Amino acid sequence: MRRLLPLLLFASAVVLGGCASADPEPDGTGGAVAGSGGAVPDTGSGSGISQAENDLRIEVDLGDGVAPQTWTLTCVGSVEGTHPRAADACAHLDGMTEPFAPLPEDLVCTEQYGGPQTAHITGRWRGEPVDLELSRVDGCRISQWDSFGPVLPVPVGVEPLG
Q1: Residue 85: is it exposed, middle or buried by C-beta count within 10 angstroms (0-12/13-18/19+)?
Q2: Residue 155: its pLDDT value, please?
Q3: Does 157 fall in a domain?
Q4: Is residue 98 part of a domain?
Q5: Angle at alpha carbon of residue 109, lines to 107 and 112, rounded to 5°
Q6: I need a labelling partner for 60 at 20 to 30 A (CA). Which of 16, 39, 43, 132 fits?
Q7: Percent of the chain at pLDDT exceeding 70
Q8: Full residue range of the structural domain in which residue 115 is found
Q9: How does pLDDT run across 92-120, given as a tens digit for each residue?
Q10: 99 domain-assigned
Q11: Residues contacting 54, CB < 8 A, separation 6+
């Protein structure tokens, strides 16, 4: 038994040594940030620049054969971006409870066509990732589009709600 003890200790040391990081970072953290519990912060890009909490990219295709329009919208204290109604859009989004919640899978919608328009909104809102596709292909999606008010354009020939 006494001969087995050193062998057991050696085997344990080898196994535990294999669990250590083989490629530690220069700061000695093994890639983790101190106090982060091992998590590396999401910087939003490889450049080390973090994305704003309310920072969106909105691409709208009016379905008329013209190239899609792309706008940026940043709503953090001051309003920034290329959106044509940036201040109105930020105020409207701020007043919505969950603006980017997807429609439920089992939602029953009226069969009506609101037009060929589509939109894709990506980025971050209230610190959460956003990736929402919108269209006007049925009653539910028309209502969803219209709920965005000044964020999305009102299609030609359609009266805005409210």
Answers
A1: middle
A2: 77
A3: no
A4: yes
A5: 160
A6: 43
A7: 64
A8: 55-151
A9: 999 999 999 999 999 999 999 999 999 99
A10: yes
A11: 74, 75, 76, 90, 93, 124, 125, 126
In 13-160, DSSP assigns E strands to 55-61, 69-76, 78-80, 115-125, 128-136
- Decide: 147 and 162 in contact? Cβ < 8 Å: no
**pLDDT-based confidence at residue 40 (cuts at 50, 70, 90):** very low
CA distance 46 to 147: 34
pLDDT at 3: 53
User: What are the C-alpha distances in Å from 155 to residues 61, 81, 92, 117, 152?
Assistant: 11, 22, 18, 8, 9
Number of domains forming the structure of the chain: 1
Kindly report the pTM of this predicted structure. 0.66
Structure tokens at 85: 């109604």
The answer to whether residue 67 scores a pLDDT higher than 50 is yes
- State yes or no: pLDDT of 86 exceeds 70: yes
Domain with residue 132: its CATH number is: 3.30.350.10
Q: How far apart are CA 111 and CA 17, in angstroms?
A: 63
Q: In this structure, which amino acid lies at residue 118?
A: T
Predicted pLDDT of residue 143: 95
Tracing tokens 């596709």 back to the chain, one arrives at 133
